[in-house]
Amino acid sequence: MTSPKHARLLILGSGPAGYTAAVYAARANLKPVLITGIAQGGQLMTTTDVDNWPADADGIQGPELMMRFQKHAERFATEIIFDHIQSVDLEAKPILLTGDNGMYTCDALIIATGASAKWLGIPSEEKFKNFGLSACATCDGALFKGRDLAVVGGGDTAMEEATFLTRFSPKVTLIHRREEFRASKIMLDRARRNPRIELVTNAVVDEILGALPRPGVTGVRLRDTRDNSTREMAVGGVFVAIGHEPNSKLFTGLLDMDAAGYIKTLPGSTATKIPGVFACGDVADHVYRQAVTAAGTGCMAAIDAERFLAH
Ligand code: FAD
Ligand code: NAP
Count of alpha carbons within 13 Å of 117, Cβ hemisphere only? Predict the structure, then answer.
């Protein structure tokens, strides 16, 4: 058996938080090792226009922005390893991590594992994943050309996905469980103005309808949340856009978390309750969850880790 690969500083995650931490740590000569995880580039790889990345006045495509992050991290000699960590021992000295492809040890660890799409949790969902049910319009939208579609959710992601899907679909019905929307006004207004989008409020998807392997999804059964009445709606595809949950399961029982599983850090810092273990980006932020805030806390984590290692 080969011995674990050792790094002074190991960074978990290749989203805006992880790559920014890498840039700062590498410039501080910490020779960081960054483990990408399966979702290399993180959440922005699943989106198109990013219009609020500062200093990119014309906007930028999510995957292009993440390629730039990666290039920047590589320029300052970050070692980037494609692996996904399955278990950790945070009490071990050095900290021990086991991935699909190898084992790693480190003196300090930055957790930047971000968040993943949530699903509705209804039984028919499992059945229709990849058969007309998706959580990523950017990835799968083009496969649904010409079909009427449903998007579930009332946040920015749902607005963005619905708007994007009108490139392929003659009619997109956005289904939201309440009257009020969580989405920002600008995104909601854009969806409202789009003649191909219909907003259906006070409704939840009770069941996804269809047959396997073909034709896949053919409709949804909607339940009105006010009177529990149900009705069926024909659609050729369903996109679930109901938010994300933090990728923190690896650390359950090891680090303090809030009720939703976001890792708690000390106020004004990225330090967790274990010395030498830092958390940044969406995995530790249930409030802002933006690329720029993830990058900002990635910078903080690198500076916090540098100070820890210096002592
Ligand atoms: P993420 O981007 O989630 O990256 C997490 C990383 O951790 C991934 O690389 C993953 O592979 C890795 N990882 C996870 N588990 C493990 C493990 N066990 N081992 C190793 N690695 C692991 N924000 C904006 O500011 N503007 C936008 O326009 C915008 N658009 C968005 C559109 C969509 C569709 C979505 C879903 C989000 C959008 N956001 C936007 C939010 C933004 O993407 C996130 O705030 C940001 O990506 C968070 O960065 P992060 O680095 O914390 O985590
Ligand atoms: P979100 O803001 O948490 O919104 C999730 C939506 O899904 C809410 O409307 C919620 O309803 C609904 N929902 C949750 N669980 C549900 C369920 N089981 N059944 C039905 N509906 C359910 O998540 P998000 O839209 O993914 O956005 C996450 C973050 O990324 C936000 O900070 C957002 O600003 C950011 N983002 C930004 C952009 C951009 O700036 N261009 C684009 C996308 C995302 P309730 O409202 O009733 O809770």
Answer: 22
More confident of the two residues 143 and 296: 296
Express each pLDDT in 293-310 by its tens digit: 999 999 999 999 999 999
Q: Which residues pair with 188 in a beta bridge?
A: none
φ, ψ (nearest 5 deg) of residue 38 = -65, -40
Whether 51 shows a pLDDT value over 90: the answer reads no
Answer positive or negative: Cα dihedral of 226, 227, 228, 233.
Answer: negative
222 bridge partner residues? 205, 231
Q: How confident is the model at residue 56 (pLDDT cuts 50, 70, 90)?
A: very high
pTM of this structure: 0.84
Q: Which ligand is nearest to the CA of 46?
A: 1
Q: How far is the CA of 66 from the centre of ligand 2 (A)?
A: 22
Residue pair 48/4 in contact by the 8 Å Cβ criterion:
no
State the Cα–Cα distance between residues 71 and 50, nearest whole angstrom. 18
Ligand 2 centre distance from Cα of residue 118 (Å): 10
Asked if residue 1 has pLDDT above 70, the reply is no
Q: What is the pLDDT of residue 13?
A: 98
DSSP letters, 244-276, are: EEES-GGGTTTS-B-TT-PBP--TTS-B-SSTT
Does any ligand 1 atom lie closer than 6 A to the CB of residue 7?
no
The gap between the terminal CA atoms of the chain, to the nearest Å, is 33
